[in-house]
Amino acid sequence: MPLDVRALTPTTGLNDHLENLAQLRIRVFRDWPYLYDGDIAYEREYLAGFAASDGAVCIAAFDGDDMIGASTGMPLIDEHDEIKKPFVDAAIPLDDIFYCAESVLLSDYRGRGIYRQFMDGREAHARGFDRFNTLVFCGVQRPDDHPLKPKDAEPLDNVWRHFGYEPVESLVCYFSWKDVDRDGETEKPLKFWLKSL
Question: What is the pLDDT of residues 131-144, one digit of tens each?
Fold first, then answer.
């Protein structure tokens, strides 16, 4: 049975799938490099804020009724202050930037071209507004000697560049969450990558 990949927005069923998206985020982000010890209450609150943005989109992949992957985005101006802060500090206007939040995909479904559909879907959504000229996302920065880093872990820099993104070393935000090997939350740096539309 072919996988079903479709765009969900606040007016096309996004709210019906927020619980599935929360569970998927917790499951995938538990792995390297995020090591997120998921909190369903936080996820529900975060995703309710996401879905409240008129410009929100979730490119969702389904295997039958099961959501097996998702890629989200929203106007940067609607994001958390922590995400916006480096742009505000650098006096970069927020109105014409579309923020690509996360892409999560269960490991059994990787290598099938779904990621390309995620990236293309978010970009098409952003272009549809005719007001965004830049796409951005950020990725967590972990030290090379982190004790939980898998031996075969490879940086995704070449993947991001393949899709047209370039890193901006001066744009870094900071977020706190609880890692799987910690008793409490710790702050992590996340570096931004940009792509011009």
Answer: 999 999 999 999 99
